[in-house]
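Duplicate of #3305? Posting structure anyway:
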């Protein structure tokens, strides 16, 4: 059986500093406006909960969920939106898409197209973590927390088979 060892990558203190910096950048850019945060389930729920509490900008919060076909499936078409938001809620608003980690970029690319069709006043992307080495599509990242190496990460919302989301720090998984 494969043994997993968790190796600390980012401590809760380091994550806290990154989240506060992102909140300050967002507050500066959206001063005097109201934001709709669209949070990508499930991984980004911990990050989003901390982010909104560091922000001063008034926010509305909603959630989207995406499912990707298993790799190897012929009928790909990429990730599908399985839980969406209402058009009336998005139209004319300043929207910020909130993601835990930007990996291939396929999920964010799909969601940007989905949200853009609803006619937001503006549409930007915030991701706590960025794994640029894995990118397959070019997506804008307006608010980048920190760049991480090409390793499988868990904790702070990120799971391994639905576990480890509740860890307060971020670890990479070493197989031995
Ligand atoms: P995408 O490849 O579409 O950019 O990312 C899709 C999703 O894969 C992310 O939202 C995240 O939930 C998941 N993901 C990407 N890299 C990792 C990782 O290192 N660990 C975990 N737990 N999930 C990841
Ligand atoms: Mg995710």
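Output from current build:
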């Amino acid at each position: 059986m494969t043994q997993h060892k968790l190796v600390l990558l980012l401590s809760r203190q380091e994550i806290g500093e990154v989240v506060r910096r992102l909140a300050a950048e967002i507050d500066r850019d959206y001063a005097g406006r109201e934001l709709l945060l669209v949070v990508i389930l499930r991984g980004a729920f911990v990050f989003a909960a901390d982010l909104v509490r560091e922000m001063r900008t008034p926010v509305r919060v909603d959630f989207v969920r995406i499912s990707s076909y298993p790799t190897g499936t012929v009928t790909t078409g990429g990730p599908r939106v399985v839980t969406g938001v209402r058009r009336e809620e998005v139209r004319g608003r300043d929207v910020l898409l909130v993601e835990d980690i930007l990996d291939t970029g396929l999920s964010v690319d799909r969601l940007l197209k989905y949200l853009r069709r609803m006619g937001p006043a503006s549409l930007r992307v915030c991701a706590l973590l960025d794994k640029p080495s894995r990118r397959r599509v070019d997506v804008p990242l307006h608010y980048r927390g920190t760049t991480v190496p090409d390793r499988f990460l868990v904790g702070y919302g990120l799971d391994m088979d639905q576990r480890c989301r509740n860890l307060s720090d971020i670890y990479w998984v070493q197989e031995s």
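Confirmed duplicate; merging threads. Residues 40, 43, 99-107, 131, 152-154, 158-159 surround guanosine-5'-monophosphate (ligand 1) (CB under 6 Å). The chain is about 25% helix and 35% strand.
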